[in-house]
Amino acid sequence: QVQLVESGGGLVQAGGSLRLSCAASGRTFSTYAMGWFRQAPGKEREFVAAISWSGGSTYHADSVKGRFTISRDNAKNTVYLQMNSLKPEDTAVYYCAADQAPLRGVVPTTRDAYYYWGQGTRVTVSS
User: Fold this and answer.
1) 3-54 per-position pLDDT tens digit
2) What's the distance, Cα to Cα, between the start and end of the chain in Å?
3) Coil, strand, or helix at residue 7?
4) How far apart are CA 125 and CA 120, in angstroms?
5) How far, in Å, CA of 22 to CA of 118, rounded?
6) How far apart are CA 29 and CA 73, in angstroms?
7) Alpha-carbon distance 104 to 53, whole Å?
8) Which residues pair with 125 in a beta bridge?
9) For 44, which DSSP code?
10) Distance of alpha carbon 105 from alpha carbon 103, whole angstroms
């Protein structure tokens, strides 16, 4: 069982930066691939970034590549999303999620592969 709590959202001007954190409970956090998704008003929830359980592999959506970076600290049971050069179109509620099973050899990038979800943190980027 994994429980997730996001933090770090807020209001920022275009071009600014934010770092989102996702704190996980459960001693098996380090064995799960983790992902970040976002949902803008009136839109579907979309993939943003994912990281393998070891942290050795990362994937980023084309829309955020070069601006956002996912990372994790297994000693702190936390996954991060560093967001730089923010744009108004990045405005959304951001969710972290944990893979459906531990120690899988793939890093999922689709919503249906993730089983555990946080409550979300809102990011608003003003122009």
Assistant:
1) 999 999 999 999 999 999 999 997 788 899 999 999 999 999 999 999 999 9
2) 40
3) strand
4) 16
5) 8
6) 10
7) 8
8) 12
9) -
10) 6
